[in-house]
Records
---
Amino acid sequence: MDFEVITTSELRDLLPAHWEAGIPVMVESQPGLGKSAVTAQAARRWNATFWDVRAALRHPVDFAGLPSVARTDGHLLTEWAEPGFLPRGEGRHVLAMEEVNRAPLMTQNALFQLVQEGRSGSYVLPAQTGICALVNPVADGGGVTALSPALLNRWVHYTLSPDLDAWLRWAFGAGIAHPIMSYLRNNPKALHEYSTTERAWPSPRTWHLLSRSLDAQPDPQYCARLAVAAVGKERGIQYAAHAQVWQHLAWDLDVLLTNPRAPIPSVDGQGADQLYALSTAVAYRATLHNIDRVMELTGRLPQEYAAYIVRTFSYVSGDDGGNGKTAGLQLLASPSVVRWVAEHPELV
């Protein structure tokens, strides 16, 4: 096991522990995996104010603040106004330094003075400030420069990897288009396929962009164009074909979930795309009022898809608490779900 490589859910759990101990963290990953989003979520868990500094857009003097002239004891002295983009005030703070290894060397030095000394010029970091640097791999190019060993030795380091389960949990709570979730469940490698040669390629970020585009333009005739524009030609065309499956599900859920006596059609002969689409649709429609009927439908599916539905109830709960989480836990605790889990312990 590569203990340096970490998933988004693991990183979200570990960041507050490092910040509580006053230890700066450097997180490396290819673009599009959600480093910034996960750091912001961890800051909320730590009850901290989140400060996002784009290092590549800053000059060294920015960290000292704007100069002004003041008269002190008859002498004219230069004083510096504190930078407004850095943490200030009481309570906890998280300073996320974005694209540190794309910034000019002098800007890097100004940033790392904050890490080493907790100050830059007259500016002093608040006492309870967690620090996180977010960087891209040097091997990926694109203006990324290697940081010195002396600087690297002052941080703890993690490499972020794609995490489909964690992304699906977030996706259900964020309202990501259901066909995207079922497509990725059936094609997990498509979550993130980094490319240095293509303009558009799949990543958690671009799947989110596609979902937003589909919300804004739901006309099916544009689905393939929107998908290719967001995630590239190969995956975009595949996704558009999968999205068409959602127009012709084997079950009419509006009927089956409102009429307990309606006959349940067979799913024999349905392919993986159809079954993942159907399973996602069933899981997302589950409520405390219809859960018994949902589990009846679940029992008519092949076991691997039934298990997917039950696991998805935890996705519906989301990662950040709130009413959704309570509802998800109640679904998992309902008698019909508990009974199914007891009968199929090897599947969950």
---
Amino acid sequence: MSVTTNQRIATMRYLVENYDEKEKRLGKTILLKSMFVLQDLFEVPLDYSYQIYLYGPYSAGAVRDLEWASYNDFLDMLVTRDRNYNNFYDLSIPDGERLNNPNLLKFKVELTKVEQKENEDFLYEHKDKLESFLKIFRGKATREFELYSTIVFLYNRKKDEFSIYDILSEVKEIKPHFDEEEIKTAYEYLKTSTHLFD
């Protein structure tokens, strides 16, 4: 059985709700990179297609699901702008509702009892992976996620012929704003915290 849009959005909601670390909430870029890392590193079957982009792996499908979730009040997306006119997207659960509230999904789009049960089952089935992900990556900055997700993307596409030198070279080529030390540090963090290079 393939994953549904509702299950993907339930996963997004789970991350938004559980990411909060001392009022540091999850932003759009981190959420989208988190969905990639969950899929490619933790093997949560989200079935998104990714390509490398300006800030790391990018999926038009994940962006579409996030925008749909925001439009239909499954997630709140607050847009703020800094003095340089850069937009920032702060994500939260609407009206303080929590994911485990049985009356949660009373929004513009009503989910059936079957859909709600499918979402619960999907999250339960992957709860260990979601919790492991949060334990390793909760509180990381957007810049760190950009680097982690880029390394995972490159590694997973060239597993057999990939070394630390390849990572340094390829990441530096597509992400010149990262210095060698940052790339090495991110590589070491992934190596010691995950099973990526096993």
---
Amino acid sequence: METAGIGKLTPSRESTEAGIVPLQGHEKFRSGDADETRSFVSSIFCPHSLEPRTRNGKVDALVNHAPVGSMSLNYLRYGVPVVVDPGELGRMFLVQIQLSGGVDVKCGQQAASLGQGHASVLSPTEHTRMDWTGDAAELIVRLERDRWKIPWGPCSARLCPNP
């Protein structure tokens, strides 16, 4: 069984307070349409459901994407509260670093509310569900499961206070 861990990083407010968006030179997608956004984000990560928690069903999505060998660096913002349910990630690990806002994440039997400066490592073999706040933005590292070994050991069955 692959494992997942959730921990806290030292917050860096400089980028979000200064309005700097990571990977600005790699903007790949911007849309207000939830279905277009789900389709594009699925093409980078995996198929998933995307449910905006707004009356009009719109989003304000921005995706910056930079492939680097067998991994990719990604900046993702939905701009409104959303629920994202990819189920099992299958072929990849995701390292999600919360830059702003918050996300309630459940991966297998682990659950946590993450705020700015927190990070999670999502297992490819555990069902994942995320509930994003409207101001949430993440830097996401996508790691191909077959090319990387992620040894989280003791974090497999509990939350990790410090990675």
---
Amino acid sequence: MRFAIHHPTYLPDISFFARLEAIDVMVLLDNWPMPDPGNGNNLCRGNLRLAGQRPATVRLTVPIHRRPRGQSVNQVHINGRDQWARRHWETVRRNYRSAPGFANAEAALLSIYSHEWQYLCRLNMTMIRWCQRQLEICSSKIILSSSLGLRPGAQDNAISIIGEALCANEYAAGFVERSRISEADLDVLHDRGLTVLGFRTEYRPYPQVGPSFIAELAVIDLILSLGSRRDIRSVLMGATEALEVGSSR
């Protein structure tokens, strides 16, 4: 079995779903501690394209309440006093209303942004599941870490803990993640029967709402910009390449 772990992020980019397509199971760390803001934490953020004459992006951020250190992802509350949902929806509508896929997606996205969300994880999972359906990726490929009955540990040993629970033999690491896995950690994983694969994402250009192509946007940019399921799948399927990351042994 080939698996990966990830946090349930608000607006994942193409690399998240391209890796999901290439594995058996993605475990989302909902009951693991919330990562520090400065440690690549995109749980409440995502980038979209701005329509217009110049290539530009906008970052959407969901405001959250200050949390005690070590609080799990599924316990993080959204700051409901902020009008974030209205602003996010207006940003999506204003920039993508003329895009080929907007008409089919409008009702679903409006429903998501009209809901009064209390927990960040529930919002993020709803957005991820919607994107997953639009991309025609099997729903059973995503499971929550809380459903495995595991006691959360440090982020560093999540691969070993979850790999053992799944009886997996391959771990699919993202581009940034693979650079953080030390030789010593690779040796430990190898001893436990896990081969580590590093996934490299190739962002293939597709028509967007503005001039020139901008990579690493939230996957809803792809969904709204193209509309056609066939074209969307074509971009997604050609986006990743797996390379084995060897241990020192």
